[in-house]
Amino acid sequence: MSYTLEFESQVLSIEQNIKDLRDSSKLGDIDVAAEISRMQAKVDRLLGSIYKKLTPWQKVQVARHPDRPKFLEYLSGMFTDFVEMSGDRLCADDRAIIGGFAKLSDFKCIVMGEEKGRDTESRLLHNFGMARPEGYRKACRLLELADRFDLPVISFIDTSGAFPGIESEERGQAESIAKCMEKSFQIESAFISIVIGEGGSGGAVAIASADYVLMLEHSVYSVISPEGCASILWKDDSKAEVAAESQRLTAQDLLSLGVIDKIIREPTGGAHRNCEEVIGNVKSSIIHYLNKSLETPQDTRTQLRRQKYMSMGDKFLC
Known about the structure:
This protein has 318 residues and is of the alpha/beta class. It has two domains: 6-53; 60-317, 2-enoyl-CoA Hydratase, Chain A, domain 1, CATH 3.90.226. It contains 15 helices and eight strands. Strands 1, 2, 3, 4, 5, 6, 7 and 8 form an eight-stranded mixed beta sheet that branches. Strand 5 (191-200), helix 9 and strand 6 (212-216) form a beta-alpha-beta unit. The chain is globular and about 65 Å long.
């Protein structure tokens, strides 16, 4: 891990001491294993204490952590035989959304996800995970392929929102998101979505209208970013922390509201501290809910999916 969040600062010095001890042990025959083990246990205790009482704004920071596993890491760590499908057959290929045919254990499936990128070059290539209309039209194409070949769909959500540029509006951003959601409610394929970082606005909902929506423990899912909410309500994006407290955007809030179906545990200190463990947790959860969805008859599955989302507004208004 190369980046430490502000509220993790109390463990930074201990982790630096651990690094120094490891470096010094390479220069001689000094046995520091016991001391390193003791200090690492202290780090784990501190992180466990900190992460048990994170505020909503702190969870937003964890969800945005630059070292947090991105979609392409889940793709390479969980799936095999991936064959990418490029382009929307209308305009261009949007690299903010990656998708294609793959295998998850014994399941042949369609997998797609929003990729933010990890360094400057890849972030620019993937437009920070903010898809343009052609990205959602590519996703719609993938949903159609899944329905045609009776393949389950697995989608990974990690975006601050759909790209808000003028060119996106000119090419029909709102229509492309709406069409993607419409197609999600029409397909008879099993459909599982998971929020692995940020789930922002229509950019997330477009590919998250699934039978089951899962969230990592410290991910967030909301109609707008806290900064955007603050700039609208108070004309001051510095009030983002206040906005986050009111938005009910944490996995725990959304589970209690019935918006999501499962919270997946993260390693102590967040997913960025143990990528292999969190990828394993995500894989087992997806397989469990995929089996659960496949147990439901196709026509019933589509009907239940529609009812699930159409009834949410009534439930919240009551």
